[in-house]
Amino acid sequence: MESTISVEGLGKRYGATVAVRDLSFTVEPGKVTGFLGPNGAGKSTTMRVILGLDRPTTGRALIAGVPYASIPAPTRVVGSLLDAGAVHPGRTARAHLGWIARASGVDLRRVGAALDRVGIAHAADRPAAALSLGMRQRLGLAAALLGDPSVLILDEPLNGLDPQGIVWLRGLLKEFADAGGTVLVSSHLMNEMQATADHVIVIARGELLASVGVAELAARTAGSVRVDGPGARALVPELRQRGARVEHAPATPDAFDVTGLDPLEIGRLALGAGVALRELAPRRTGLEAAFMDLTTSERTSG
Question: Chain centroid to CA 124: how far?
């Protein structure tokens, strides 16, 4: 079954509060797609709408071309983890998965396999209250995988996992995507998303900022130098004449980023022009720096 997630013109309002505004993006099979944004950006709301837990105010969200509620036996198509704490504290891990299996028509023999796959078979008969946060996260992942779905939608699944668990989950998600599965995963751990995701969707204030490959987004900050100081922008024509690329920074009117010249050459140019600089430093590189640039720009312009 084709398993693309399509969000089309999605809007969600709670009274006077707009949580999501005209949001459109596509999550394709065969990739791990990271869903990024500051707290309150609308990530969890969007995931809830995709999963049919909230009704959209405008637009629609489709999985394999239909709303979640229209999927026959949805557990066999979509696995989700939104809240690892949503387990009865007195119910054992095995009983929790057994209840889900019976409710969704999944073969009970898959319970043991799911517990084994996420590495908590040894804790199958412990009550949920006795499980650590990391083990409850793994139990939630077992529930998501129980029906052998082609789509995974996971909200902050790395929470509570130790470093070994994070590496394990990275491998599981990549393996799932490599087998043709569709993965949408939110996280605030930018370094881990850079190591795990193939593509990222970045939102803020419920609006789309970027839908782009991880390597492309991370490369936007690679090798650049931040220049800042009163009158520093007078250097821009000369920098460009020397072959540098200059991009104005959103956070301050005097700052800009230079690619193609090293800090020493820029400093010499500023000295010769009599321009005092308060910052002349290589930028951080990678997904975290690019994410901060995007979201800072949005806050400054908003």
Answer: 30
> What are the sequence ranges of the domains in the chain?
5-213, 223-284
Does the pLDDT of residue 54 top 70, yes or no? yes
- Level-2 CATH architecture, domain 223-284: 2-Layer Sandwich (3.30)
Which conformational region is residue 248 in: left (phi greater than 0), alpha (psi within -120 to 50 degrees), or beta?
beta
Total count of residues recorded for the chain: 302
Alpha-helical segments (H) within the chain: 43-50, 93-104, 109-117, 133-145, 163-178, 190-196, 214-219, 236-241, 263-273, 287-301
Rounded to whole angstroms, the Cα distance separating 193 from 97 reads 28
Tokens (6 digits) for 274: 């009599």
> What CATH number was assigned to the domain covering residues 5-213?
3.40.50.300
Q: Is the pTM of this model over 0.90?
A: no
Q: Shortest CA distance to 160 belongs to which of 152, 168, 172?
A: 168
Sign of the four-CA dihedral 173, 176, 180, 181: negative
**Residue 283: pLDDT band by 50, 70, 90 thresholds?**
confident
171-175, 186-190, 259-263, 283-287: the lowest-pLDDT one:
283-287
In the structure, what pLDDT confidence band is assigned to residue 189 with cuts at 50, 70 and 90?
Answer: confident
Asked if 209 and 43 touch (Cβ cutoff 8 Å), the reply is no
